[in-house]
Amino acid sequence: MSDLTTIARPYAQAVFKLAKEENATDQWSENLAFLALLMQDAEMVGVVKNPKIEKERIEQLILDIAEGKFDGKTVNFIRLLIQNDRLLLAPQISELYEQYKSEDEGYVDVELKSAFALTKAEEKTIGASLEKALNKTVHIKANVDKTLIGGFLARAGDIVIDGSIKGRLQQLSKRL
Questions:
Q1: Domain that includes residue 17, residue range
Q2: Apex CA 80: angle with CA 51 and CA 14, to 5°?
Q3: Residues 77-117: pLDDT tens digits?
């Protein structure tokens, strides 16, 4: 766990609690994803890190880019992040928020990497196995990773299931 995630956690928890109380988890999810995407832009990061640019100007820039997308509470949250110099944590806050949301709704997002493209039937079979192992509904996001040689690698939050040939070879080399 990174230090940034540790610092972002209280913000994500507070936002999730507020979103649950207001029954607005999807809206907050969209807003945080937008803010996270914005804070991953190199030019925007440069602006935020520049000590010569006033915090009010950074806030106005974000609101101008958002073009009225944010409600009053989201704007207040952005102000809080800016005042506490935590705006660059938006990607971590968004990621943690999504974890809290999926946990609350009883599903888990799984990143599934395989050496070759999976058919729908293979994806469904692996999904059923993961649902049984994790005891949650699984939403799979499948990607191809040629470095795996064969098999698959599933990542659900902090849980990693390595069924790849590359992983097995690494385990074998450690044993030898």
A1: 3-102
A2: 140
A3: 999 999 999 999 999 999 999 989 988 888 888 888 988 88
